[in-house]
Design brief:
Layout lengths: L6 E8 L14 E8 L3 E6 L2 E6 H10 L3 E7 L7
């Protein structure tokens, strides 16, 4: 049997003027639900969360100035 592994996650970001602390009363919150079965990175561009594949990560870094890496997801096959 061949199973496809999928990762689901939800990202929540807020404006950066809160000194890095989550502002529970803020109305300027960005939410994003993401699903992937590929290796890649979760990044923050300005105040938005994006998921990019490993192949696209270098292109994004050269194009965007305000990019912060948050999480790396790696797909590993068990070939034992």
């Amino acid at each position: 049997m061949n199973f496809c592994r999928v990762v689901y996650f939800r990202g929540v970001t807020w404006l950066r003027d809160s000194h890095g602390l989550f502002d529970y009363e803020s109305r300027n919150i960005s939410k994003r639900n993401i699903r992937t079965g590929q290796s890649g990175r979760v990044i923050r561009i300005n105040d938005e969360i994006e998921y990019i594949t490993t192949e696209d990560s270098e292109a994004i870094k050269s194009e965007e100035k305000d990019v912060k890496g948050i999480l790396k997801i790696m797909k590993q096959d068990k070939s034992e």
